[in-house]
Amino acid sequence: MINDKPAEPFNWRTIHSVVVLLVLGFFLYTVQGILNPFILFVLLVFLMSPYSGTRHHLLLVSATAMLTLIWALNTTGFLLAPFVLAVVLAYVQHPLVTRLEKRMSRTWATVLLMLPAVGVLALVIFLGIPAVSAQIGDFIHGAPKLIQTATERLQTWQTQLASRDLPLVDEQSLITRLQSLQPEAVMGWLQQRQAAIGRAAWGGIMGVGRGLSAVLTILGYVFLTPILTFYLLRDWPVMMRRIHDLVPAAHRDRVTGFASEFDTLLSGYMRGQLIESSIVGVLTWLGFVLLGFPYALLLAVIAAVFNVIPYLGLVLTAVPALVIALFLDNPLWAIGKVAIVFLIVQILDGSILGPKIVGDSVGIHPVWVILALSLFGFFFGFVGLLLAIPLAVLVKLMVEHGMTRYRSSKLFRGERPLIALD
């Protein structure tokens, strides 16, 4: 039987598409030296524009946009840090400006709020940082004396220590190693590496690099962040309205409700933690000063910074204090001072500050907070630390909404089988 069906015409569009892709691939290969993920993302969006509106287009563009954002944070974090910090500061201070706005214009309300903030920043830069740096220097220069004191004390306790059978410890070997430490050698080692230690600590906290990037970051924190914070605070309602208008009308109510819930949860946690950490730092400093414990300001700064990390913050603060106490003239009394200060501060923090300031309504699990701070701080430095809690709150809300939809689904209620057998 003869098939009278006419032959399909040759599809030149397919050949044309293949040729275009080959030429594009060859072109990208030749200019690979100047390519980066941002340029490739823009090129991808342009090439995918004919498929705009389809589900696959939305998924592909969203995924590549997220990857491009991660690349940008990892690559230019030292430049973005002042901008991200300004957004965080504006977000935290926005409710105060809104309250003041009832009595004056928003511009003057922002100025009135920013003046004390700039004054505090100036005090921190010109008084706080030099004081903390001086205490760090005193600790480094005093380390050989501390080691000498510890060595002499160990020589006194040598007989008692050797007579005790401590599990998993070779007492004689421990004493021999500590006695072999020469204070002058330790002093020289610390002096040689003091600058490197300072750079490493600064880089770890601020997420800066070397040379120009470090200079730009410092200038950004000192000068650019206050200016950006002022303009963000002044124009915050306008920016929020513009973002609100960008949401499609069909999804506006749902997105607005989710954003409101996110704002309530995040603002309660961030503002509460900021106030709580500041009070913990002041109480720690006051306690050590009243008891005459050295390096009170340095330990107070450590306590305030690490207080945002549940449970681990206490350990990270207590360890350096106990190490200092062990090398003082009366170590038992010094350890008692540390115990008194931390016991009182932790009782006040756990029974009064935490419940009254942060509250139990936040609902962010401590393990989730530790994981978020660790991962984002490791990959993105200081910018990651700023974004860790907001993203943790966002993921928490998304999981809660997803679980709510799942519990109301036919699958959860048993009205639809997991696998259709027909």
Overview in brief:
The protein has 422 residues and is mostly helical.
Question: What topology emerges from the helices and strands here?
Answer:
Layout: H1 12-30, H2 37-47, H3 55-75, H4 77-100, H5 106-156, H6 158-163, H7 171-179, H8 183-206, H9 212-234, H10 236-246, H11 252-290, H12 296-306, H13 312-326, H14 331-358, H15 366-407, H16 410-413
Helix pairs in contact: 2-3, 4-5, 4-9, 4-15, 5-8, 5-9, 11-12, 11-14, 11-15, 12-13, 13-14
Could you walk me through the main structural features you see in this protein, from its secondary elements to its overall organization?
The chain is globular. The two termini are 39 Å apart. Helix 13 (312-326) runs antiparallel to helix 14 (331-358). It has helices at residues 12-30, 37-47, 55-75, 77-100, 106-156, 158-163, 171-179, 183-206, 212-234, 236-246, 252-290, 296-306, 312-326, 331-358, 366-407, 410-413. Residues 204-212 have low confidence and may be disordered. The protein has a domain at 77-246. It is an all-alpha fold and 422 residues long. It has 16 helices and no strands. It is a multi-pass membrane protein. One of its GO terms (biological process) is transmembrane transport. Belongs to the autoinducer-2 exporter (AI-2E) (TC 2.A.86) family.
